[in-house]
């Protein structure tokens, strides 16, 4: 991609790898019959990617990425179905749910900030490799409906690398109406690990 895109919907799952030739913004104004607004196959390139899906029921699905940064500014639902690797930050906001599906991961050189107005389901690793912090927030609109569920269906490790967050900034922040770590004991391999390397602070808030 060498230019911004404004379209009703966008699907790149049949085109192989999409390469970002420069910083790219994709705006989707509608949805398909399955509610997909943006459905991306693998993406690479040393540039920033910004995604916005404004329709009421819009779904954004992401797969493998190796880019500079990712910013999902608006969507109803967001699904991570691949390993997303960034040199800098990963930020995402959803009006409903955000899901990191089993076997996938977010690995960021900068900060990771995921905010879902409803549930945030993390069934894979969320890791920063530099000095970044991690904020995983469900019930972001404080409506009283939205749980943070980590490692319910598959192992999930939440880990920061440095433990050097500034005063008043938590290295890892976990928040939701309810915060649940680890799944049903009948689900083989489910479980959650929360790790700060270097002694950074962890804040867990149940609303």
State the main characteristics:
15-stranded parallel β-sheet; 207 residues; 8-stranded parallel β-sheet
Task: Describe the protein's architecture and organization.
It is built from no helices and 23 strands. By secondary structure, it is an all-beta fold. The chain has a 15-stranded parallel sheet that branches. An eight-stranded parallel sheet has the order 2-5-7-9-12-15-18-21, with no helix packed on it. The protein starts with a strand and ends with a strand.
| Helix share, percent | under 10%
Radius of gyration: 16 Å
Number of helices: 0
**Overall mean pLDDT score?**
92
Question: What's a concise summary of this model?
Answer:
The chain has strands at residues 5-7, 10-11, 18-19, 24-28, 36-39, 43-53, 59-62, 65-74, 77-80, 83-86, 90-94, 98-100, 105-108, 112-116, 120-122, 125-128, 134-137, 148-150, 155-160, 172-176, 179-181, 191-196, 202-206. It has 207 residues and is mainly β.
List the helices and strands and how they pair.
Layout: E1 5-7, E2 10-11, E3 18-19, E4 24-28, E5 36-39, E6 43-53, E7 59-62, E8 65-74, E9 77-80, E10 83-86, E11 90-94, E12 98-100, E13 105-108, E14 112-116, E15 120-122, E16 125-128, E17 134-137, E18 148-150, E19 155-160, E20 172-176, E21 179-181, E22 191-196, E23 202-206
Parallel strand pairs: 1-4, 2-5, 3-6, 4-6, 5-7, 6-8, 7-9, 8-10, 8-11, 9-12, 10-13, 11-14, 12-15, 13-16, 14-17, 15-18, 16-19, 17-20, 18-21, 19-22, 20-23
